[in-house]
Amino acid sequence: MSTIEEGTLLWEPREELKQKAAVTAYMNWLRTEKKLNFQDYHSLWKWSTDEIESFWESLWDYFQIKSSIPYKSILSSRNMPGAKWFTGAAINYTEHIFNQRDKEAIAIIHASETRPTSSITWGELEQDTRAFQQTLKKSGVKKGDRIVAYVPNIYEAVVAFLATASLGAIWSSASPDFGTESVMDRFQQIEPKVMITVDGYNYNGKEFSRLDVVKGIQEALPTLETTIAIPYLSKTNDISTLKNCITWAEATTLDEDTPFTFEQVEFNDPLWILFSSGTTGKPKPIVQSQGGILLEHLKAMTFHMDVSEEDRFFWYTTTGWMMWNFLVGGLLVGSTIVLYDGSPAYPDKRQLWKFAEETKLTVFGTSASFLTSCMKDNMQPGTEFDLKHIKNISSTGSPLPPEGFLWCYENVKKDLWISSVSGGTDVCTAFILGTPILPVYAGELQCRGLGARIESFNEQEEPLIEEVGELVLTAPFPSMPVFFWNDVNNSRLIDSYFDVFPGIWCHGDYLKITNRHTCVIYGRSDATINRGGIRIGTSEIYRAVDHIEEVTDSLIVDIPLDNGESSTPLFVVMRDGVELTEEIQQKIKKQIRSHCSPRHTPTAIYQVPDLPKTLNGKKLEIPVKKILMGKPVDQVVNKGSLSNKASLDYFIRFSKEQAQIP
């Protein structure tokens, strides 16, 4: 694997690309319409975060937001939490989706392990959404009702969501790989009226029936009145055994005489409820607003993803991850969104690159772990597949190491805009991300997002440059949660974001802002490795270990000991058929000594069969740390939040067998 120094310049946009970029068009518009002149991106960002009211008001005008009632004020106050945006305005998210679309143009391309690649026009999408809206109305759905979906990343999910939002009802979804307990932990909190579900799904070439799980969910939801079932696994599956069931075919039968309507809702009214991973308890029900998401996703898609009607926008995701909601936002700017349901490694890791060639993707969104996995397997997709249409690779989920950037340029495409982004479910967007008018540096996120006043703070609440600190947001942001569902006095919300620095959003990541205004994320701040008073993020350790060919994944934790010192065990997953030998251990330690520092060399290295991860693929560093410190498992981790529950068994045994970690 090639090595590269963090911060190495890898790509600069051609002048032609900068002039064609949507953010350049916006700056030209500001110059003409608002008499505001900005010479570069950072001066634009500074204005957007100093004058946040003027910035977001300009987006209202620029994107020609449709509002049946004008807003009374742009921002109620700058206090957090509790700031309200565009109070009094009445809007509808779905109305903006279908605003002035070419009905013959392609809106969605979709495929799965069992479904061939198919295209849906804007006209077909509108017709199915209109028909589904009629079904929801007949089921008694009104503004504020909760509609839940237990569905994969398929076309039907988009239809159901758009119809839900068109009525001012509130959407929430879970992927069918979530088990009964995980779904109940989410859906029971919000008391839904209608559920959309599949009978099962395929993953990695295997069938998974979900009818029994769905029946269990129905029993656990006393408020549920209607279930709409999609025969996804089998056309012959007996979905008639489900209570109060309507088939998808029935739900999308259109009554031509009934008009398509858009319920006008207050700007700050709920659009959907996203759930945190729930690793340490019941998942947090995060409520985001119709207007906040509308404006933020228009901004992110246009200025930071540079997505337009000419693009085919893909992100590998499930409906249980906020990236699905973000992907649907691509419809707001008229792009063709591309959906794929299935394993990214079935029949092998070439699948998504083959899919990119087939569908002529222009924006390829994925996880850092997928790219590093391709890198470690020495793949060369740019040689094997025709990827000439790809202009951008975007990555999230965890920090993309510098070597991951370099691999893309060497093995995918030389003229490529790589955008590593960071945000989260909490805001359903990235607030550190990219833009096509800036250069790409290895391991660095290009810029802080417009309107997002991101800083790196030390413990004294002082902003840092070229030093690592806590990622904070010091001014309101439209897609912040308006509240948590059933959260009395906002206590859970305040504990989640505002308990470190009162009145300032603390995100929980370690961040460095460079002199060039780029950013580097070093992992979760509560999982930092502190040796002799020197702190580094876990991502730096993982980057070093990634160079060891025999290792496929790793996890490190910092365990405080009674003598005031600490222990840092490193757990590694080896390639199939490879054992962790003393020789490999020495290679790992040498790599960490040279890439990080001698003091951050792990105190011991252990081979494990698997690492515990959330359903969204994130490593459980903090729960593992607490288990190894002797905390009861049930108090530190919700097993229902894991994609691989059995992976915890090793760490539970380990904690019992080790009186004290060496």
UniProtKB/TrEMBL annotation:
Its EC number is 6.2.1.16. Residues 41-96 form the Acetyl-coenzyme A synthetase N-terminal domain. SUPFAM superfamilies: Acetyl-CoA synthetase-like. Keywords: ATP-binding, Ligase, Nucleotide-binding. CDD domains: AACS. Belongs to the ATP-dependent AMP-binding enzyme family. This is Acetoacetate--CoA ligase. The lineage of its organism: Bacteria, Bacillati, Bacillota, Bacilli, Bacillales.
